Amino acid sequence: MLWFxxxxxARGLLVVLFVSFLVVALLALAPGSPATVILGENxxxxxxxxxxxQLGLDQPVWVQWWHxxxxxxxxxxxxxxxxxxTVLDAVTTALPVTLEIAVLALLISLGISIPxxxxxxPRAGSAADRGVGALTSVLLAIPAFVAAPLLVYLFAIQLxxxxxxxxxxxSEGIGANLRSAFLPALSVALIEIAAFQRVLRAxxxxxLREDYIDAARTKGLSARYVLLRHALRPSSFSLLTVSGMSxxxxxxxxxxxxxxxxxxxxxxxxxxxxxxxxxxTVQGVVAFVAMAYVLVNTLVDIGYGFLDPRVRxxxxx
Amino acid sequence: MSAPTLSLTKGDDGPDVGxxxxxxxxxxxxxxxxxxxSVGWLALVALLAAFSGLLPLAGYGVPVGFPRSGSxxxxxxxxxxxxxxxxxxxxxxxxxxxxxIVGAISSITAMCVGTLLGxxxxxxxxxxxxxxxxxxxxxxxxxxxxxLLALSSVLxxxxxxxxxxxxxxxxxxxxxxxxxxxxxxxxREFVLAATNxxxxxxxxxxxxxxxxxxxxxxxxxxxxxxxxxxxxxxxxFLGMGIPSPTPSWGGMIADGRTHLYEAPQLVxxxxxxxxxxxxxxxxxxxxxxxxxxxxxxx
Amino acid sequence: xKRLRITPLIVAMAGAVALSxxxxxxxGRSSDDxxxxxxxxxxxxxxxxxxxxxRMLDPALMFNQYSNHxxxxxxxxxxxxxxxxxxxxxxxxxxxxxxxxxKGTTWTLKLRDGLKFSDGTPLDAKAVxxxxxxxxxxxxGSESRPAAALVKKYEAEGQTLTIELDSPYTTFPDAVMSTxxxxxxxxxxxxTGDKFNENPVGAGPFVLEKWTRGGEMRVKKNPxxxxxxxxxLDGLVIKPIQDEDQRFxxxxxxxxxxxxxxxxxxxxxxxxxxxxxYEFPTSGGIKANFNTRTAPFxxxxxxxxxxxxxxxxxxxxxxxxxxxxxxxxxxxxxxPFFRDDLPLPKHDKATAQRLFDQxxxxxxxxxxKITSFPSPSGLKAVQAMxxxxxxxxxxxxxxxxxxxxxxxxKQLDKTFQMIPGGIxxxxxxxxxxxxxxxxxxxxxxxxxxxxxxxxxxTGxxSSDPAERREAFAVVSRKAAxxxxxxxxxxxxPTVISSKKAHGFHMxxxxxxxxxxxxxxx
Lengths: 317, 298, 521
Prior knowledge:
Order of helices and strands of chain B: HHHHHHHHH
Strand order of the largest sheet of chain C: 8-9-10-1-11-18-12
Strand content of chain B: under 5%
Helix content of chain B: 55-70%
Oligomer: heterotrimer
Largest sheet of chain C: 7 strands, mixed
CATH architecture of the domain at 103-243 in chain B: Orthogonal Bundle
Distance between the termini of chain B: 36 Å
Radius of gyration of chain B: 24 Å
Number of strands of chain C: 22
Helix content of chain C: 25-40%
Strand content of chain C: 15-25%
Largest interface: A-B, 69 and 59 residues
């Protein structure tokens, strides 16, 4: 069991290495360099070239990558080329923001999708089920960049229930913090609600066809009891998987809401860094997000494998 | 407690020990009106995308009306005019090319490449499998929007960049799906039988396994296309989508967003179009998947 | 948009006016004047939304402009001087006086006595010299290097700094006020390198309390500020909000007390929502430079054709909902250098088409790319131009959207053909020399005309107002002939604020002063 987890993580590490190489390669190919950004409009070509040499940007891509890897393994993720902030500092400041949005979005999604699935599955095929299905189809079609401005218009400007922009950290009060996180989290949660509901509903429908459900019903247990106690738990595997993937995906996918709501999270950090060619910071953030994604998936796989030995064994064939 | 809905045995509620296998009513997707509407919409959009040049509409880049004005009685002015006075209808029609055609090419390319890789990985296993899955997982772990942004910075926003980027982002999903299905099918009796009869590995892979993994993979296609339409929109929203004057639905939303107050139709029109298209695609995707699942179960 | 001629002189956005507490900053047009609200009340924290935050708090690396970091600089470092009513004069701030006795070659900057940075070290002439010298260092990459490089010799003694410029420059203080030279940081703190961002020591009205990158910056009142009863506010919260709509929305929903913007289409909504507006009109404006070094714009006819082909009112409609001001001349109508007999080229479809045809016949058809940054308004303007050009024959225009480093790289290696930018000024000597002199590093277009050069040099070195007016008249005339750039909208930095926020004054490039801000309770 442990060996399984370790193997997965080791492989995940290799994945992260490749991802970081991609980052260096891509940014090296992009026109303009951090030297251009640092020296600005009055730069002379010589000054730019000088600075690039100083920053080690004239070296071949794989050499730059190798240096970064070496330093990273010693715990040194480097310092931003453009604003002198250490990458570790930048990431640890930005992470709680994105993490809170992601977790809140996950909670909102689960909080709405589970009841909807529980509502729809036992009534599979009925008007209620089809209605919910249509609703989820609707939600699936509302991307964050459409949802966010509409939600802002409705809830922030017209109703004034939530702030239009800005992030209030937890240290300044949980109420204000949740208010500033709600609209962004809701914008990204809409699609997740639909995805989760569908996955859980599908699993529930399958489970509800099993013999032991029938047996439980014949024992005289109420429908609701059977649904919650006997059907929900075994049907959660897919939901667990999808939630894990969703969390991993959200950690890297909040760029748009962070831009619109001015949230100082990882999305904003990486977008700003890409547009100032701050290779070091982009590497740090992408590597971090990739690691987080790998970690979450590994945990989900372990959890799954724990519950279903066939999965664990499948890898060894 | 009336009308208990958890009734999986036919008929009434009480203990029915004498029954054999419970007859579970399959969720039948009848030819629902929703399904017909979806297919109809998709057909309409596809036709418009294909023949946009032939329609009697003003060019998408030519200002023909008063900026940001609403619907007028002419064909060009049906959906009003954008901030430059260009026909919103014309731009929406032509914009379907960017969204649909780019999305379609990307998703189909990804499907072909992904299926091939997934098939090879899942069937032959060993180091091939390890190598393919390594690169696949790496691409999956890379945050998609960051990848697209980085590519836009490198290649500069254009149709090509979009094609390359979107294909790269969705291929891993197809690889995984194809591989998972290949693994499931490879152990079936008829495949083992074919091996025993002395057929070559390649022949088996192509003749026996491939036709069986195609349905679930193809069923996934509409969902992927929908996701790509959204991805293109996100990129345009951040200013790195298809450069003007070429329209795209996401680009129209990005352009119209700053006029949400005076002329909300500039955002609502493309948003609704994206919405209907994605909705329709998901309906079709659902339908195909139900069919496929049903086939598998039988 | 014709404005009342409030004063024929250059306007004063200054400490002096704010000191007296009376409203009326001559020349700035304010409807629901946020400054006409009675004596300032001390206390409170004002939240101001602005465009973006700086990468580094090193003053030399910040831009003293409304759409960049002026707010941060003025808060942390204060100002050496600010403009005065009369042409070329200054109002004291950290400096008592800034004068020349030999018509602009030697300047004497006299700082107030006893000035100290917030770390206790003295703000003396040596500190100013230190800051200005490092700004001139090309390795540092300061945007203000062209201004700092004008100083040939420094002599620092006590609170008096005497400098010698390499040529007479009668409005040199304007160069200081248009750049980060106006901001002096503690040399001791600057020596700490990257750590300076955590401890940006200056002598401004505020000191740093907390900075969350990507979030907001909090500053609190500097107890050792040189003016005893200033700043009025206890603190300031500066919120960078890049998205224009969201910035405006934040004031609308009381998420901020004020917002710096230049988006004129918000003004109507602001007025109808009961918000106050402070506008700071300037000359120059939003421009797009042609690259005269390469085809097609190495031929002046191509430039003239594009300029005349475009209907700027339509561009205005598309970009700013018609609410911006279309410039008809290089100088703003309230400027003493304005001449209504020297307008910019007018929209002229026939001439434009004729020129395009002519060039095509000669085998030099006008085919070019406009490089654009991803900002929404910049993009819209460029789209509008391209859409209009489609109505002409023999001209092909493509739009190329690049992100900031890519566009900057193109500008630096001069491979662009047409690229947007901005030029704003009230006193023209510094800005126009920078833009159009053949030897200036900021001459993006690459124009090289001896008559222009001579006029710009005269404009800088002459102390005779009539001679200067004549020189800049030449510049105006030649700008309309040579068309190195297309000026398509005035840049009028504006502050939209709640009715409770007062004391807004800007100077030079829309640099917002903060020591006079106050909130009414």
